[in-house]
């Protein structure tokens, strides 16, 4: 019985350590740099930036002018949010990256058509 408790305790500690390390390693990125999420997004992210699953993108913007919508590849290419797409409009949104391609567009005032969209590939 004591051996079973020791094994369970060890597994619990190990799982907690793994979760802590993943959280501690996550980075936060301000989308667009000092200008934030705006129509001048074309030079972001800087060349050579590496993203990982679990990293956080912080979108800061004027919610009267812009929003952030998480879309799929088709939504990104067509500038149309599919049904059920996650829309953010607080003006200060944090989005966790998933492994693979992460697509973001603005659906207000035709800004996506003006190239206010990004795709981030997370390792």
UniProtKB/TrEMBL annotation:
Residues annotated as domain Phytocyanin: 27-123
Keyword check for Transport: no
PROSITE patterns hit by this protein: PHYTOCYANIN
Signal peptide positions on this chain: 1-26
UniProt-recorded Gene Ontology molecular function terms: electron transfer activity
UniProt KW keywords: Signal
UniProt GO cellular component terms: plasma membrane
Pfam family, one: Cu_bind_like
The protein's name in its UniProt record: Phytocyanin domain-containing protein
Source organism per UniProt: Castanea mollissima (Chinese chestnut)
């Amino acid at each position: 019985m004591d051996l079973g408790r020791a094994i369970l305790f060890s597994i619990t500690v190990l799982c907690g350590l793994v979760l802590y390390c993943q959280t501690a390693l996550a980075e936060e990125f301000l989308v667009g740099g000092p200008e934030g999420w705006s129509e001048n997004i074309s030079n972001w992210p800087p060349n050579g930036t590496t993203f990982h699953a679990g990293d956080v993108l912080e979108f800061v913007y004027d919610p009267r002018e812009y929003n952030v919508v998480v879309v799929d590849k088709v939504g990104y290419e067509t500038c149309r949010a599919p049904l059920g797409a996650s829309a953010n409009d607080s003006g200060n949104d944090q989005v966790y990256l998933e492994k693979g391609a992460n697509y973001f567009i603005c659906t207000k005032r035709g800004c996506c058509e003006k190239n206010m969209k990004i795709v981030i590939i997370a390792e």
